[in-house]
Structure formats: C-alpha cells, structure tokens
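Let us practice reading a record.
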Amino acid sequence: YRDAKDSKNERRALERWVDTSPDDPSPRILVARNHAARGDFKSALRAAYEASRRAPEDPDIHVFLAASHLELDDYDMAMDHSDIAHRIDPGRADAQQLFEAAFYVSAASTLRCAEGPDPWQRRDVEGVLASYLQEGVRNVDVFYGFHERFKDDATVKRRLERAARRCEKEVHGNAPGEDE
C-alpha cells in the first residue's frame, strides 16, 4: 500500500496488523510514521508510545519519539528520548543531533525570551545553561558551537520564532502583531 500511496488502505492494513499482533511494536511504529507523514504528531506520539511499551530498549523508537516531540516544540521530552536512544546505542549520530537541536532551541528560546534577540552576553548564556545541568551541557563555548551550527537553519529559526511568540504572549498577554 505504501508504494501505491493509498494512505486510507495503508491505515486499514496497519490497523489489522495492530489488531492481530498485540505484542509486536512494528505495526505501531509504522502507524506512528504514517501519522507523522501526515503532520499529525500528537497521534504519532500516541502510537509510538504504544510501540515503546512493547520494545522499551529499541533506540529507533526513542529517536522517533525525540523527533516527534521536537516537532511539537516539547524540547525537554525530545532531549529525554534522544538521551535514552543514545544510552541504548551510543553510536547513534541521529540521537545526538536531535539532542543538540532540542537543547539549542530550548536554551536559545529561553535567552531570546529573557534577553531579546542574539547577540547574547556570555554571562546571560552562563545563567541559562545553569538551569540545564541535568542535560550535561554547561560549557558556554559548546552552546556557541551549537549556535553557529543551528542559527541559520530555517527549521530552527521557525522554532525560535514560535517560542518568542509564546514568550511574548506569556509576558504581555499577546503575541507580536496581535491586536490588544
């Protein structure tokens, strides 16, 4: 069905596979990928968590969970699942890259909310990094390395803009450009 791009039939076939294989994570992760391909990351997460309950040590599932949480701007969960995938399989470059992207957007959005747009003062970066001790990234130079790598990435820019709008709404009750 995937080759025919017939998503309705594909979903039906996956649902039948899920029904006939209650302990198998494979159909559930495929259902999750099907939802993600349609941009429905909340449904994708539900299906992926079902797969994870059946295969908690599968790094692919945790990478998928991390990527889906990142799509939904849930940076803490993206970092958590990236870290789990990396601990299960330390060679996973995709898990490391997801962690770094989630960490950078989280820290940079906190900085942008508190201090305004880049450039940020080193002491301000140090202050924000102090709140990320459990993630293990405390070195300001490491943050600036992430900044150089991600600052021109269009997806990261969109995430930072969304975070700035949320921050503005929390602080002032309205997002920039919204009527008061």
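A brief commentary: The two ends are 50 Å apart (CA to CA).
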